[in-house]
Design goal:
Elements lengths: L1 E5 L9 H15 L3 E7 L11 E4 L2 E2 L7 E2 L4 H11 L7 E4 L4 H13 L3 E4 L4 H8 L3 H15 L1 H7 L9 E3 L4 E3 L3 H15 L15 H9 L4 E4 L2 H9 L6 E3 L6 H10 L10 E5 L8 H11 L4 E5 L5 H10 L5 E6 L3 H10 L2 E4 L9 H8 L4 E3 L2 H7 L3 E3 L5 H16 L10 H4 L2 H18 L2
Parallel strand pairs: 1-2, 1-6, 2-3, 6-7, 7-10, 10-11, 12-13, 12-15, 13-14, 15-16, 16-17
Antiparallel strand pairs: 4-5, 8-9
Helix pairs in contact: 1-18, 3-6, 4-5, 5-8, 11-12, 11-16
Length: 445
């Protein structure tokens, strides 16, 4: 099978979705499939891979980490010309939410290919956190989608799969839909085939983030989400009547290597906390640093990653006295990042409402490392091995850090669910996704 993935950003750029897609690509290839990844060209040095199809792009961030490829006729011609030199595609897997999604859906429509769309992004929350006028931005985004996807909607007439089963990655099992869900799915599919975007649920906006995601889902034969809580929200907001839940996974090889080494006895010294991710407002790095200072904990705090708030974070640490030592490790290779997580006493997750899964805490749980968790949905998905933060305030986070530090020092740290290590393996997640690919391909025959 030849799977063509479309992404908003190059797979070698920083971000959880990119890490996940790199793993998906590698494990699909390991399973004998061919993968092409279509994404904007990266504006810095990056590893070369014949599977990458780099689109002409424009850098959109000061650090040149992220880029934009305009979805239009010129890009369409470029993609078609490049793809003509490769094996015929069987399935399009869209894993972008903006220009990557537009380019991917347009390509699939032109060539009559089935689409699996993985929703990685809480579009409404992300724009709320990063844009000065989020309502206006969302209206413009919906208008852009209508224009960019108009021809795709006409030529495809929609293709959502209404007969699939919902896959829940927590159990690794599939179950038939209840009759009411199936009926709604059938009606949604009929509307999609007629070329209509699903209607918003009563009282819902037609120009918010959910309306935007509904437009993308209407062109897809299957919709997947990386967590049960995000899948539930997508269904509740009418994005798709049946969403397949497939966790993003952890590299089997790296996991096996870390587990084979065994989790050694804790090194003497103060509690060690790790925060990692993209340094942008929705990730709430600055509130975390404020909570570290307010908590008064004598701990070692390591910040892994990069992004637009790096300098602000460094200045904050320089200007605010703290009992904790805070170091900035920068961007690290994936395997080294996992080793740092395994060596830590706890990983700290601080974003709220933005994450569609929260990869870092699942990676930590797989390695036996507990987590301080701010997002209640992520806390519920993990179930155990967490110190849950009571609310979104800095004092609440500071209090939870004090509690975690006290438990760690006393040798009474909470323990993650040991079954997550097996359920989170990328090999199992890839097998689940292949089932979806086969289902949508068979439905189109």
């Amino acid at each position: 099978m030849h799977v063509v993935m479309f992404a908003d950003q190059h797979l070698e750029s920083l971000g959880g979705a990119q890490v996940s897609m790199r793993l998906q690509k590698r494990f699909l290839e390991r399973a004998g499939h061919v993968v092409t990844v279509v994404a904007p060209r990266l504006h810095r040095d990056a590893p070369e891979d014949p599977a990458y199809l780099d689109l002409p792009s424009l850098a959109i961030t000061p650090d040149r980490e992220y880029a934009l490829s305009w979805p239009g006729a010129r890009t369409d011609r470029f993609v078609d010309a490049e793809m003509a030199t490769r094996l015929p595609a069987d399935v399009v897997h869209v894993q972008g939410d903006f220009w990557g999604a537009f380019v991917g859906h347009r390509y699939a429509a032109r060539h009559g290919l089935p689409v699996v769309h993985t929703m990685h992004n809480r579009v409404d929350v992300g724009i709320q956190a990063t844009a000065p006028f989020p309502g206006l931005v969302l209206r413009v985004l919906n208008a852009w989608a209508r224009r960019a996807l108009r021809d795709a909607a006409r030529s495809r007439g929609g293709s959502r799969d209404a007969a699939g089963a919902t896959h829940d990655a927590r159990t690794g099992a599939s179950s038939s839909q209840e009759s009411s869900i199936a009926l709604r799915a059938s009606r949604a599919s009929a509307r999609a085939r007629a070329g209509h975007v699903p209607a918003a649920p009563p009282g819902r906006s037609r120009s918010d983030g959910w309306a935007y995601l509904r437009r993308l889902a209407a062109l897809s034969r299957a919709v997947t989400a990386p967590s049960s809580h995000f899948a539930r929200r997508l269904e509740q907001h009418g994005v798709s009547p049946a969403v397949d839940v497939i966790w993003n996974g952890i590299d089997d090889d790296v996991l096996d290597g870390v587990l084979a080494a065994g989790r050694s006895a804790r090194r003497p010294g103060p509690p060690r906390f790790v925060w990692l991710g993209r340094m942008s407002p929705e990730k709430r790095l600055m509130p975390f640093l404020g909570a570290v200072a307010e908590s008064g904990i004598a701990a070692e705090v390591e910040i892994i990653g990069g992004g637009g708030q790096l300098r602000a974070a460094q200045r904050f640490v320089e200007r605010h006295a703290s009992a904790a030592s805070v170091t900035f490790a920068g961007r690290l290779p994936y395997a080294e990042t996992l080793r740092r997580i395994a060596d830590a006493d706890a990983v700290v997750q601080t974003s709220i409402g933005f994450e569609t899964q929260g990869m870092t805490v699942f990676e930590a749980a797989s390695l036996g490392t507990p987590a301080v968790v701010s997002d209640p949905d992520i806390a519920a998905e993990l179930g155990s091995g967490i110190w849950a933060v009571a609310d979104a305030t800095v004092p609440a986070l500071a209090e939870t850090l004090r509690r975690a530090a006290s438990d760690i020092t006393a040798g009474a740290a909470v323990a993650p669910d040991p079954t997550i290590a097996e359920r989170f393996r990328q090999s199992s997640r890839t097998a689940a996704m292949i089932e979806v690919y086969e289902r949508v391909a068979a439905a189109g025959r």
